[in-house]
Amino acid sequence: MTTATPEKSEAVSSDHTPITVTLKILRFNPEVDTEPHWESYDVPAQRTDRLLNLLFYVKDYIDGTFSFRRSCAHGVCGSDAMQINGINRLACKVLMKDLLSQDGKKTTITIAPIKGLTTLKDLYVDMDPFFEAYRAVKPYLIAYGNEPTRERIQSQADRDRFDDTTKCILCACCTSSCPVYWNDGSYFGPAAIVNAHRFIFDSRDEGAEERLDILNDSEGVWRCRTTFNCTDACPRGIQVTKAIQEVKRALLFKRV
């Protein structure tokens, strides 16, 4: 029989010691509010909790009118994108241990809806403009001629060419972190360009020219100012700015 070392015992204990944190949430109910306002909630937590757990606590035990999107809770659906301490992140991927004050003082976490999209209620935003831009770049395989009788073979090198941009989960973290998009919602935005990239550089696709023509518009890739906000915000680690620059080069040199 073995026993845990004191160091391990203390670590386990500290991870599960209850603490209280304050969630400062930007609330907005269009039925009663004319402007968004901040409300604070003291919520019990553990270091191993995800921020999403604390949002559920507010809704389940404090205020049932609190609204936010969520689905898989595993960083795959992208539903729970929001500003957490001013940074676009997924609530289900943020651990409390990474947000707690290091000086022993009580922790306050600010939570607000992502920018650039109209807030419908609390953290719930209108995603229609985002998905309209996504659909506009034709994010699907385009192939002409007769349907093949066997699968379309692709080399590993060809697959690697666009592998990074296949990871997009359409959470809008990148697009809503873009200052160009904040000021002008007609810009396609990083996520739409990333999803165009995924097919433009796919060797099996024959619609690259169509997508490049779409993105050569005044609201397309040329609006990008290379601030890297989009790359920093992506919860999947996609090199968003790099993908946008590759699309620009394809337009400049007419070569994919």
Automatic annotation (TrEMBL):
EC number of this enzyme: 1.3.5.1
Source organism, top-level taxon: Bacteria
Pfam name, any one: Fer4_8
Sequence ranges assigned to domain 4Fe-4S ferredoxin-type in this UniProt record: 158-180
NCBIfam families: dhsB, PRK05950.1
Family annotation (PANTHER family): SUCCINATE DEHYDROGENASE [UBIQUINONE] IRON-SULFUR SUBUNIT, MITOCHONDRIAL (PTHR11921:SF29), SUCCINATE DEHYDROGENASE IRON-SULFUR PROTEIN (PTHR11921)
Protein name per the record: succinate dehydrogenase
